[in-house]
């Protein structure tokens, strides 16, 4: 897990990221090389996914069970389900610079889905849903500089962004290859399939 960079905020895209500066794990014994078992590799991969999407174990198990019931292969279905979470979509639409910030905005009721307030970060969006900030919340500090950020931002292909109205419309299924995520979802599926 150490040495892996996650783009959770702008700082990790720059050379100032702690993971870029430090080549070893933290602590006195960080320089030792550990060889992981198969179970260890699966566990580390699962923990990386949980950390990236800000999930708890119970939520992760719930999403795995949903992915198992899907018609497509379980690893692809799991990746798509995680990408369709509301807090993740708000981040991918470019409204916020970090996932924790996007999650906080959803929890505090600053985000509308199809014109209605939704305060659950785990809400799964569907094709055709329109996500927008609460118009009354735009004056709050959490939205400072949103218009400048949105002008430069290019969202993924499945999100259609109206930069003037600050609306993001879901126009298709998430394309996992486009995101280039550093996870092996098949290891996560193997972990939960035990």
Q: Helix content range of the residues, please?
A: 40-55%
Number of helices: 9
What is the mean predicted local confidence, pLDDT? Answer: 86
Number of DSSP-assigned strands: 5
Strand content: 5-15%
Structural class label: alpha+beta
| SSE pattern | HHHHHHEEEHEEHH
Main β sheet profile: 5 strands, antiparallel
What is the CATH class name of the domain at 85-176?
Answer: Alpha Beta
Rg, Cα atoms, Å: 18 Å
CATH architecture of the domain at 85-176: Roll
Order the strands across the largest sheet as they lie in space: 2-1-3-5-4
Q: Rough shape?
A: globular
Described by its quaternary structure, the protein is single chain
Return the CATH topology of the domain at 85-176: Structural Genomics Hypothetical 15.5 Kd Protein In mrcA-pckA Intergenic Region, Chain A
- Distance between the ends: 22 Å
CATH homologous superfamily descriptor of the domain at 85-176: RNA-binding S4 domain
Quick structural overview:
This protein is of the alpha+beta class. 40% of the residues lie in helices and 9% in strands. The protein is built from nine helices and five strands; from the N terminus they run H-H-H-H-H-H-E-E-E-H-E-E-H-H.
What does this structure look like?
The chain is 40% helix and 9% strand. The protein is of the alpha+beta class and 194 residues long. The protein has a domain at 85-176: Roll (Structural Genomics Hypothetical 15.5 Kd Protein In mrcA-pckA Intergenic Region, Chain A). The protein has a five-stranded antiparallel beta sheet, with helices on one face. Strand 4 (159-162) and strand 5 (167-170) form a beta hairpin. The radius of gyration is 18 Å and the shape is globular.
């Amino acid at each position: 897990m150490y040495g892996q960079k996650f783009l959770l905020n702008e700082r990790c895209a720059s050379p100032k990221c702690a993971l870029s500066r430090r080549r070893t794990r933290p602590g006195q014994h960080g320089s030792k090389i550990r060889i992981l078992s198969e179970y260890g590799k699966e566990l580390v991969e699962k923990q990386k996914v949980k950390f990236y999407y800000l999930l708890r174990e119970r939520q992760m198990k719930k999403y795995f069970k949903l992915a198992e019931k899907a018609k497509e292969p379980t690893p692809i279905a799991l990746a798509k389900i995680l990408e369709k979470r509301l807090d993740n979509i708000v981040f991918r639409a470019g409204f916020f610079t970090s996932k924790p910030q996007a999650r906080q905005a959803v929890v505090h009721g600053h985000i509308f889905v199809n014109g209605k307030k939704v305060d659950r970060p785990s809400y799964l969006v569907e094709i055709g849903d329109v996500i927008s900030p609460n118009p009354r919340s735009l004056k709050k500090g959490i939205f400072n500089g949103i218009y400048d950020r949105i002008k430069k931002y290019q969202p993924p292909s499945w999100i259609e962004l109206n930069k003037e109205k600050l609306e993001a419309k879901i126009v298709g299924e998430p394309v996992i290859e486009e995101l280039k995520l550093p996870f092996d979802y098949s290891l996560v599926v193997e972990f939960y399939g035990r």
